[in-house]
Amino acid sequence: MRALLRRLTSPSFRSKVFLASFICIGIPVILSLSIYSYLTRDAVEEQAMQNATKALDLTEENVSHILDDMLNVSNFVQIDSELNTILKNKSNMSLSALENQDYTGFLEDRQIQKTIEDITLLGEKSFVTILLENGKYYTNYTTAQFDPYSLYDEEWLNKLEKVNGYETYWSGVEPTMLQYEKIQNPYQLSVGKTLRSNNKEIYGYVIVTLLETKVRTVLMNKNESEELMLMDGNNTILSHQDPQQINNKAAFVAQLNPRQSSQIVELQGQKYVITQKELTFNDWKLVSKVPYKQATSNINSIFSKVFILLAVSFAVFFVILAYLMRRITKPLRYLERVVRKVQGGDLSVRSQVESKDEIGEFSQSLNNMLDRVNMMITEVSHTHKRKRKAELAMLQAQINPHFLFNVLNSIRMKVFRFGDKESAGMIQSLSKLLRWTIDNQDDQICFRDELGLIRDYVKLMNMRQKNKVTLLIECTDQTNDQMVPRFLLQPLIENAIIHGLNQGEGEIRIEADVNDYQFTILISDNGAGMSESALARVNNTFGNATNKTRAASHSGFSSIGMTNVYERLQLSYRKKPEMLVKSKEYVGTTIEIIIPLGGEEDVQGNVS
User: Fold this and answer.
1) Which residues, listed in sequence order, are joined to residue 263 by a DSSP beta bridge?
2) CB–CB of 602/572 below 8 Å?
3) Model confidence over 302-338: pLDDT tens digits?
4) How confident is the model at residue 513, as a pLDDT?
5) Going by fewer Cβ within 10 Å, which terminus of the chain is more open, N or C?
6) Which residue, among 172, 123, 116, 124, has the nearest Cα to 148 in the 3D structure?
7) Is the separation of the CB atoms in 241 and 220 below 8 Å?
């Protein structure tokens, strides 16, 4: 026992993990099991009431939709101005006059009949009766099923006369008035509205009737243990899964708390989850009654499974914990020794842990980090050598500066005085190129200035050779301020003129665009192109350009070849650009330069 206490209180990693596991997992599990019986009861009841409320909300939506259809039909008859105008005129006529009305009156009757038939096509089928004060009526059913005059005998018609304006009166559940429907549909629900003239006098009524079975169908689409019913404000059952319950009083509603939508009530020695939902357009409500056992059976089952799972997991955890501690800490101790050697300066040491878990991944990451450190040390040294070679190549590409520039300027002025403007322009373009080579000490310039250099260079080449080259530049305005290495494009244009076009006529196109991620430049010509083997050799040189800077072409103005352009691109940016050559024999060649944006680094090593 003492040895166990010493191991638990020792500063070893294994003991700390074991203790932390017990504190973080064991104690919460024990506490969960101890208070489970107390919390489960409240949680089960709350969840059961929430489930009942959600189910009743869906039923209420469906029932409201049916009753809304009835209300919409009555509203349409009451507020449609054209229909009301016709009905008012009809109500002012006697029945004898209506029987002897002309063809226009007949068409008006047809219009009224068609209107009430059309408005009942959508939704549940309802029966509409428009009853005027003079005894004239309109229906969407045959009088063989029901005599509309019988409505005058209904007690609730007197109550309808007391309804003001656009208010409605819901009659509640009644025996079905339609003879052909009484057997299968013994009950009906009706809603009525008054039709009033401008002086608020009643000239007619509109009554919309729906068979109660339409609502009962919605109430029956639930689980067998749930009892659903539609009640009015006096707790009289208007619709129920059991037709025998209709028109009975629901006495248990008096025991409910009206402030709670869902509650648990004990009725006749049995507990029920009872939920009620008020309808929005009248004092009716939906009531759900589910036995407590059935409402909580699924939830109790889930809680029981969780209880068993927690208990078993807690027991198994402590059985395997000690074994896992040894397996886990053994490679960690080995990695500790490796890290200490690295800390002492030995970068040749490597971890031999090859497991597939996180420790193995850490071991592999440590080895990769050491390899990367060694590679970066070599790369830094190698980069300095490459940068020095590129700088020497650039120095070799320049000619003696100021003396030659001044002499050329003097020659240009003399030539211009003698009227040879073409030669003077040629010397001026050459002077501009020399000025950029001599006076500009920055290795990177704006892309706008680089395009200016290319224009002067092509102008010089066109003056040198008999066949002219057409230069087309299609670059977006956003590219003007992008920084690029000086003389980036000139060697590529030179290759296009000399090798692609063979110093003959042709077209060279420069396209450039920039987005949030990269700056793209395309240099294309319509020259002789290259074969697939030659193209493969050219692209292969870019991957081995480090030692080929001195071997670049020296046939043009800048004395820099394509490999030097690629090398300077790699040295000018921290995120390495791409340079791809695409060519098709007898069609032309395209060089694509892709410069990633963000973290640009100039050739001096400064990050912009």
Assistant:
1) 274
2) yes
3) 767 777 777 777 777 777 777 777 777 777 777 778 8
4) 95
5) N
6) 116
7) yes
Phi, psi (rounded to 5 degrees) for 600:
-65, 145
**Residue-level pLDDT at 399:** 43
CB of 133 within 8 A of CB of 152?
no
User: Which amino acid would we find at residue 193?
Assistant: K
Q: Which one-letter DSSP state was computed for residue 24?
A: I
Cα 600 to Cα 518, 562, 572: the distances in Å are 11, 21, 7
Q: Give the list of residues 6+ apart from residue 9 with CB closer than 8 angstroms, or none.
A: 15
Q: Which amino acid appears at position 203 of this protein?
A: Y
* Phi, psi at 561, each rounded to 5°: -90, 180
**Phi and psi of 547, rounded to 5°?**
-100, 15
How far apart (Å, rounded) are the C-alpha atoms in residues 139 and 114? 10
| DSSP notation for 157-173 | HHHHHT--TT--EEEEE
Q: What is the DSSP letter of 526?
A: -
Taking the CA atoms of residue 331, residue 332, residue 338 and residue 340 in that order, the dihedral angle to the nearest 10 degrees is -160
Distant-in-sequence, close-in-space partners of 237: CB < 8 Å, separation ≥ 6? 173, 229, 230, 231, 245, 246, 247, 248, 249, 250
Q: Please, what is the Cα angle at 281 between 218 and 116, to 5 degrees? A: 75
The rounded distance, in Å, linking the Cα atoms of 566 and 539 is: 11
pTM of the model: 0.46
Concatenated DSSP letters for 174-194? EE---GGGTTT--EEEEEEEE
Residue whose pair of structure tokens reads 């010397």 in the numeric block = 427
**Tens digit of pLDDT for each residue in 481-498?**
999 988 889 889 988 888
Strand, coil or helix: 471: strand
